[in-house]
Write a structure and sequence with these properties.
44 residues; mainly alpha
């Protein structure tokens, strides 16, 4: 029975970690896009 509990915890942690990773990637790419747009439009 402890195995089931452990798998539940692992699943929860991995879901949480993947959400965090997605957020980090999203922030990173949006920053890159903003930077690219600023460079393209000539830094208003």
């Amino acid at each position: 029975m402890p195995d089931v509990k452990l798998w539940g915890i692992l699943a929860r942690v991995s879901v949480y970690a993947s959400k965090e990773l997605v957020l980090e990637l999203y922030n990173f790419f949006s920053c890159l896009l903003v930077f690219h747009e600023k460079k393209r439009t000539g830094l208003r």
